[in-house]
Design goal:
With about 425 residues, this protein is of the alpha+beta class. Helices cover about 40% and strands about 15% of the residues. Keywords: Signal.
């Protein structure tokens, strides 16, 4: 989810009085009425709120307590801090793909779900690349895949029409065919619509471009390649050039200003991994229903951005029941329901063929069959990008702020050099 992520998990959520009981060892946590308490923490939007109620109704001996963090980075920093401390984690912990490599490096602190989970929940239920990413070299499955983030493009039809650009999903495809055509359309747009930007954030565009490559900030040997991989610098140059031409709204993703930008129509396009649909609907609000559209084309062919996993740390006192809950939340039926609730796109093979998914209509986005649209986008993804150590940290804490500094007036070359040095410090 979320993020991504977006945009893209579960975390220990308990009242302050019971936080200490989240540690390893001892008897299972119990509520006052004798039920087993399963703590689960999520970030951004997973679409689980109604599913929790459904699970509790079917399992009256279980009480689910959720803690939901607004963004992924604080969630993961909390996760790694408590892993180091040896206590304080939830029964089920969420992990976003950008941070998965750091979890895999600590795989001995997580349960093997092939051992403690339901027998029928096997890796072949998922897209191969999704399950492979959470499988250790000796075959231990550390996480059940939740969503994935096949990429499409969202845009404001009314703002396109105002700028004299095509506004129907078929007509815009030529504008979004390549990054070159996308930025060229941006030049046309901003020349016709003073005060309205082409895109929301340089970092959001850069991240989408970056996720289309075979490797991220590290090569497959986990060596930092920020300086040696020309794709990274080429993406940087393209995005910062667009910023210089006034195409960016200069908003920080998931900030209050960014949220308001959706509501007030301060930008016309949005890179749209499937989970972003729920974010747009939430932030743009009912007054903008029907103004946003999504098209099944993405510059340079598509890709995947975001997606998460549900893990069960060895600290959990309720590991077996936690694995059952995680398996149920990630089963095809629940993945489809989560998509219908928040646009988090399924990663299980059977879910991708589910009629309810393929026939799902998103009324907010002009009644598009969003399930079928993103199912087609999935077929363009042949493998997950290799994410090395600290990949997510470099994206969130280095390149995001560096691009923001360019939006605030810093020279692009100076910001690039600073980002390279910061990435080297993090990579060690």
């Amino acid at each position: 989810m979320r993020p991504r992520r977006w945009i893209s998990a579960v975390v220990c959520v308990v009242a302050s009085a019971t936080v200490a009981s989240c540690g390893a060892g001892g008897a299972a946590n119990r509520t006052a009425d004798g039920r087993t308490e399963l703590t689960i923490a999520t970030f951004n939007e997973f679409g689980y709120e109604e599913l929790f109620k459904e699970y509790e109704a079917a399992h009256p001996d279980v009480k689910i307590t959720q803690r939901k963090t607004g963004q992924g980075d604080p969630h993961h920093q909390n996760l790694f801090t408590k892993l180091g401390a040896g206590s304080g984690l939830a029964d089920v912990e969420a992990v976003e793909e950008g941070y998965l490599s750091q979890v895999m490096a600590r795989a001995d602190q997580f349960n093997d779900l092939l051992e403690i989970g339901p027998r029928e929940t096997t890796p072949d239920r998922w897209l191969k690349w999704k399950a492979d990413a959470a499988t250790t070299g000796n075959g231990r499955l550390i996480g059940y895949g939740t969503d994935i983030g096949p990429l499409a493009m969202c845009y404001r039809k009314d703002l396109f029409a105002q700028a004299g650009l095509p506004s129907d999903p078929e007509g815009v495809k030529a504008l979004f065919a390549t990054w070159g055509s996308y930025f060229a359309a941006g030049d046309r747009f901003v020349s016709k619509t003073p005060g309205i930007a082409w895109f929301d954030s340089a970092a959001q565009i850069f991240n989408a471009m970056h996720n289309q490559h075979d490797v991220g900030y590290f090569d497959k040997g986990d060596n930092l390649v920020v300086e040696s991989n020309p794709d990274i610098r080429n993406d940087w140059n393209a995005v910062t050039s667009a910023v210089a031409k006034g195409q960016s709204a200069k908003l920080v993703a998931f900030s209050s200003e960014w949220n308001t930008g959706f509501k007030l129509g301060r930008f016309a396009t949005k890179t749209c991994p499937s989970w972003m649909l729920g974010v747009i609907e939430t932030q743009a609000g009912p007054e903008n229903a029907g103004k946003w559209a999504v098209t099944d084309v993405f510059p340079n062919g598509g890709g995947n951005w975001g997606g998460s996993y549900l893990t069960v740390p060895k600290q959990s006192k309720n590991a077996g029941k936690a694995a059952e809950l995680a398996a149920w939340l990630t089963a095809p039926e629940q993945q489809v329901k989560a998509f219908q609730a928040r646009g988090t796109f399924p990663s299980q093979v059977d879910a991708l063929e589910n009629r309810a998914l393929l026939e799902h209509v998103n009324t907010y986005f002009d009644n598009v069959k969003a399930g079928a649209l993103f199912a087609a986008q999935v077929q363009k993804v042949k493998a997950a990008q290799h994410k090395g150590p600290a990949d997510g940290q470099i994206q969130e804490n280095v390149f995001g702020p560096a691009l923001q500094s360019v939006e605030q007036g810093k020279r692009a070359d100076d910001a690039w050099n600073a980002a390279v040095q910061e990435a080297k410090k993090i990579a060690g």
